[in-house]
Amino acid sequence: MSYPECNWLKTAIEPTVVVQFLGFLVAYAAGSSRQWKTSAHVGTLVIAVLAYVATHVMLSNC
To answer: Which pLDDT does position 33 carry in this prediction?
Structure first.
């Protein structure tokens, strides 16, 4: 497949990836205990995943 033929696939996959990562974050946060150390780890993970998603979206628009 050439690139123009794959454009619909890219359009379908990007929101799916974002929703999947957000679902993982919510599940991880719900399953973790509420101690300060664990909350810090969850916050760090959330920031890292959101940075990855933002980078992915910005680079896919190139």
So the answer is: 65
